Amino acid sequence: MISLREITDENTAAVTALRVRPDQERFVASVAASLEEAARTPEGAPWYRAIYSDDEPVGFVMLSWNAPPGPGITGPYFLWRLLIDEHHQGHGHGRAALTLVIALLRAEGVAELITSYVPGDGEPWPFYRSLGFEPTGEVEDGEIVLRLRL
């Protein structure tokens, strides 16, 4: 069973040890780098959770959660990171985690979730498309911007 859990002193080491495959590193920052970016960017209203399968951490998700508009801020709800550990990919954990996030957003009355991805061989576009994301036509810093209407 997939759940989203807060990152605490007890699980930080296990969560930051999660890694994507080497060929995916150009698409998603590490958990440690993501947590550092969240700390440096409070104006982005970072909300993040560890993704667990039963009692084992398998991934990480980070959003801008109702971030006020401003320079460099996409949102107000922006999927900033979605990382599933290389040993846990292909089991539906990313889809299940994002489904939980979408349910939380819908419960808050959120109208849309924005994300972006780096294009290239092995890009996550097929995954996002399968969840209903659509291109907005925008490109920011070389990343394709997507929208999911909730």
From TrEMBL:
Gene Ontology MF terms: acyltransferase activity, transferring groups other than amino-acyl groups
SUPFAM superfamilies cross-referenced by the UniProt entry: Acyl-CoA N-acyltransferases (Nat)
Residue span(s) of domain N-acetyltransferase: 2-150
One family name in Pfam for this protein: Acetyltransf_1
Superkingdom per UniProt: Bacteria
Residues making up the signal peptide according to the UniProt record: none
PROSITE patterns in alphabetical order: GNAT (PS51186)
CDD domains for this protein: NAT_SF
Identification of the protein by name: N-acetyltransferase
